[in-house]
Amino acid sequence: MSPFHILPKRRAKNGTPDSPRDDAQSQAASVSPLSIPGAVGSISSHQSRIRSAGRSTLDPIHEPSSQTASAEGNGAPAQSASVSHSASSVSGTTHHESGDDDHVNEAIDEAAQELRARSPAAKPGSKLGKKIGALVGIGQTANGLVSSLETDSIQNAVNGFFESVPVLVRALDEIAKIHPFISVALLAFKAVYTFEMKRSENDSKVIALYVEMKDMMTVLLELKSIKDPSAVDVEGIAVEGRMQGLIKQIAEDIKRCANVCDVWSKMRSLAKVLKAPFWESNFVDLVNLFAQRRADLQFAMSMHAMRGIDGVSDQLKGISRLMEERTNPEQIIYFIQTYVSQEDQHLYKQVTLRGGAAAVLHDQCALEELTAEGAREPSGEHDGASDLRSLQADLRDPAEAANENLPSFERKLEILQRQIVEDTEKIMVRESDRVIESVTSGPHDRILDKDIYTIWKEMGWRGSVKTRHFVLALRDFYHDRVEESKRKEAASDVAYTSDADAWSLEFISMKWLQSISEAFDDDASGFVTIAEANDFTSSRPTNWSLPRWIAYWAVGWQNTATIYKEKIYKIVDSMFALKPCIHPQNRQMVERYLNHTWEQLMFSTMPLEPLTLLDKVQRRFGDYVVSEETRLKRNLETIRYRVDDLTTLSIVTGPGRIEKYLFPLLYLMLQRDLQILKICRHHIVDERELWDCGDNILTVVNACKTRKQSLGETFSHQGWIPQEQFKSKYCRLFELTDDWKEGRKRLYDAKLAHIHYDESSGTAGEEKSDLSALNHPLKEPYRPEVEQYIAKQYVETDEDRMAQSPIKEILGTWYSLLSKRNPPEWPMGPMFTVEIHVAKRGPYELEAVGSMPDSMRGITFTLGGNAETTAHGETYYTLHLSSTFQAYIVELRGKMSKSPTLIEGVWGGVGKEATHTEVGPFVLTRMTPEVLSCRPAPWKFEQNRIRALWRFALSATRQQVLRSTYSWKFFKQRRTARLRYVEFILRERFGPRLSAEDEVEYQGLIRSLSPADARFYASLAEHQLLQTACVHHGYECDNCSCQIRGSRMVCMTCATRSLDTLDLCSDPRCLASTVTPTQRSDLASPHLPTHDIFQLRKTMYMRERQQYDAQVREALRRSHATLDELDAPDSGPNTSSMVNRKLRCLGCEGGVKWPCWYCVECDDDVFLCVACDIKGGITKNQHKETHTLVRCQARMREEPQLSIEQRMEALETRFGTMHDSLYHRLDGLEAQLSRIQELLESAVSRPMLGPGPRSASHPWT
């Protein structure tokens, strides 16, 4: 194992959202979770503060103030001043006129007053408050806007960030009316702020960085003093000409900063702890960058202040000094470098106890322990392999991670900027909306919709009302209005004119009370607030009336979701139907995707109660459904269908509950996923395509889980049982969202349609058009790598030729082996090679490029280093190996021997804080790989150097002699080594586990291989794995516990309480084993080798369980019928190997012996003997190696199933027969005893012969 493989290898990701991509983030202790109203997740305390202030929560930036929302004299709809400007500021058109100065000043002063009221530093009586009160005009305004920056600590500025930004933005909107060129930076700042608002949890370090960004933007308020944009400074340059380039650069800096923060925020907590120093360095650079940009802005504006424009130069100097005092970047830097959230403190302690970040990064066991500990957090379902893979992805180099995330982040930002522009362009007052003039009469005056305003006022409600009362009042209002209209028209003898919304009254009724209540009461609190009522009415389509909108949520949404659900299921069936024709090198990727997503998808959609409406009613909602689907599709296409976290999801969907968008969103995602699966039939697709597709689905599922958790907490607070509530509310949509056990049971019992697998290859035209759906280029077929065997000559560079001692001695080609001292392991991985050159950056620096050959795909690393000579003349070299794949830098530090052919020393990991963790000795030598492979472990030299050298010399000589002869023994050894090394690599990943003897053999093979051999053999293992019929992800052998690869044996007899199958690998020892309830706790009885089993060489999902079960049982019945129709099998002396000579094995064409295999999928009777099947399957005629097989074995004759009465009667008959038989035997015994007695009596009665002469006829004579 190489040092880059101390971290776990990239493994398949489980279907649980944990997915690629796990959404767990570090949480700041002092910052409440913040999200835009309506975004995915629970309502945050920040939103509550905004609502309590009486401000609109539809847009955190464009909030109408009491002045700007007032009606004009002509009765035209009033608009927010800040909103009315945004579109013009983005377009770059100047709307400033001299008559508008007072309005601009009033808006900025109002924003300043509001910000001062929020600032703890500007309270009356405080020193700073007196300073602010003493300043006037522009000075007073700017001082108020920056007063929040002077706080007792940066933590206070972090806590107040989200409240202060909207105030600053409103003021900057007014500045942009005078100077439109700042709109580029302002729009970027708005988008980044909105992006962070949508995040469910905010990181304090990120917010601290944004505080510095906000300070930079605050400087732009000084532009208010420059009222004439065309005025030039002392150098004859207008303010726009001087600042436009800087503003564009600031916009790019804001985007770059937000991208870095986005990557950091999505990282797992453990990754943040381990990589904190690396990321904090990036944060510090950004803080310094914003401080420099702020200084640049101040300098550019000071050029105009020097002209004395508007006589404010002295005030600007005072403001600048004040801002410098308040916004010392070093305070923010110190906060970023020292702050640890409460959630991360435990992890920091655990990492410290294990020797620090560098030590943990070198210790795979420690990583697994900490990852498992994180998995025990109540944040959702976890899987070890998935968590380790996500952690490995998070531990990348910060620069590389940021560069990789940038395209995706820019697309998200594009959506946000487009939404901001569209929102400002589309601000209008509906016909049914009231114009809010003032809030004097009561709470009802804050209601926007006229109808709800009337109801609220007549009922005398305050800030909120019980949901049931509200909906009933709404129903009565519309029904009474229709009746009143009919009475008026009847009284006036005028023909009744049908109301355009009369059809909707059918659905505004008690029958749909629950659905309407849920539409208004977003948080399920049981009360409708004024804000919720305004949110509901404002979110309806522009040309829709309120009754029509209510009818949609009463029945239209449920009907639309039902239609989408049917479409989704058709797409999923099509995906499963494509399985047989997927390209072999895509097969595992496709199976992982289906394995990770299908069950979670079903749990989120299956419980929905279906609802069917008449076509004429459906058509009334059709335009909205189509427009929503179009909007979602456009947003998904903008981000290239990459929804990597809940924040991105909220950007795509916009404000509102997740159930509002769930079904069209899943439909669009799955539609594209199906296109990619079709491409997978003929092209080799990058594995990231379907990793991302699976993560998209799991992100949506996570949003559903978050929503259910929030609702469940609300139900619990109200004294209800959440699970019971979900069975009757929200169309039962959330009933199975996180109930894995019940969900699997329902899936197993569901009567799903059988899948008709598609064996066709499709059309070339279809493939060509579908390639546009891919985000990554296609891949070439994978082939074993042999390029390493091509001899390469070391080529000196110009820098090499000019090198001097001691750098000159290390230049050239070197081979190296690394070891681990505790526990002893020599070597720790295969040999690797590097070609060291003098670095171009300096004559005393080294550089090289190499690769670790043991990875199946290889790991490329770069090498840098230097040399130093001690006073005693000893030369030490320090080399650093780094790779974007690994999470740390490997440091080799050693001393060169007297002959410049060997460097020995110790190696370990080094972190950003320059801490070094020693792992073990290393050897760097110019010896050939064949010689180096014979070298004993470094500690052998320490124990007895002479003996180690003799062994080294003898072993190397023997190896060279064997190699020089090129005998058959030499090639046989190489062949055996290759086969065994490939076998061990595959067993290391999939099992069965290596025994102690295997471990010793594996270590010997690792030491004996050259870098070229190791790379070639590892690539052979990868190629063999890709050609494997199937890797059954998530399934382990219940006997040997290895992950099953190739054939999966499923027991047909054993029934488990968990609905999981009993699975065995193809090892004959496992097939012949007994699995007890101790090994599988959900087994009702032990599994026996005589049980019926079937064999799978392709993945079987829960979706296919019943289909497979029916097919294999029918095939088993068919095979037995075929065997029964034939003559009785021949019986030899060994009845256990019965042979039916009329049946032939498809492979060897020999007679079929018990046990044998029978094909489930072939139309004809196809039998395979065990010897042929164990080779990996057979493809012949119509039979394919991937076909499912069922095992046929000699059947025991079973007793007929009898009732108890029948059994008692049979028992009586049997006892009667035994009784008669016993009597017959007793009678025979008596007769025999009688005859014996007669013989004895006759013998006794015979006369005895006395002594005397014997006659000749006597027999004894």
Protein architecture, described:
The protein is α+β, with helices and mostly antiparallel strands and 1261 residues long. The chain is built from 43 helices and 20 strands. Strands 3-4-5-6-7-8-9-10 form an eight-stranded antiparallel β-barrel. The protein has a six-stranded antiparallel beta sheet with strand order 14-13-15-20-18-19. The longest helix has 42 residues, at 1204-1245. The termini are far apart. It comes from Rhodofomes roseus. Residues 1-102 are annotated as: Disordered. This is ZZ-type domain-containing protein.
What is the number of strand segments?
20
The portion of residues forming beta strands comes to 5-15%
What average pLDDT do the residues reach? 78
The number of helical elements comes to 43
* Low-confidence runs: 1-99, 119-151, 308-313, 315-326, 375-385, 761-767, 1127-1138, 1248-1261
- What is the helix fraction of residues, given as a range? 40-55%
Kindly, what is the distance between the CA atoms of the first and last residues, rounded to a whole number of angstroms? Answer: 101 Å
Please give the order of strands in the largest beta sheet: 3-4-5-6-7-8-9-10
Largest sheet: 8 strands, antiparallel, barrel
Shape: flat
- Which structural class fits the helix and strand makeup? alpha+beta
| Cα Rg | 41 Å
Oligomeric state: single chain
Protein name: ZZ-type domain-containing protein
List the helices and strands and how they pair.
Layout: H1 45-52, H2 81-91, H3 101-118, H4 127-134, H5 137-146, H6 154-159, H7 161-178, H8 183-198, H9 204-218, H10 239-266, H11 269-305, H12 313-326, H13 329-338, H14 342-353, H15 357-362, H16 364-375, H17 384-394, H18 398-425, H19 450-459, E1 464-466, H20 467-491, H21 513-520, E2 527-529, H22 530-538, H23 546-577, H24 584-605, H25 615-638, H26 646-653, H27 658-679, H28 687-717, H29 722-726, H30 740-749, H31 764-770, H32 798-801, H33 807-810, E3 812-818, E4 832-838, E5 846-852, E6 859-869, E7 875-882, E8 889-896, E9 902-910, E10 916-925, H34 929-932, H35 938-943, H36 945-965, H37 968-990, H38 996-1008, H39 1011-1027, E11 1031-1036, E12 1043-1045, E13 1048-1051, E14 1063-1064, H40 1068-1071, E15 1093-1096, H41 1102-1125, E16 1139-1144, E17 1151-1153, E18 1156-1159, E19 1167-1169, H42 1170-1173, E20 1189-1192, H43 1204-1245
Antiparallel strand pairs: 1-2, 3-4, 3-10, 4-5, 5-6, 6-7, 7-8, 8-9, 9-10, 11-12, 13-14, 13-15, 15-20, 16-17, 18-19, 18-20
Helix pairs in contact: 2-7, 2-18, 3-5, 3-7, 5-12, 7-8, 7-9, 8-10, 8-18, 9-11, 9-13, 10-11, 10-18, 11-13, 11-14, 16-17, 20-21, 21-23, 23-25, 23-27, 24-28, 25-27, 27-28, 37-38, 37-39
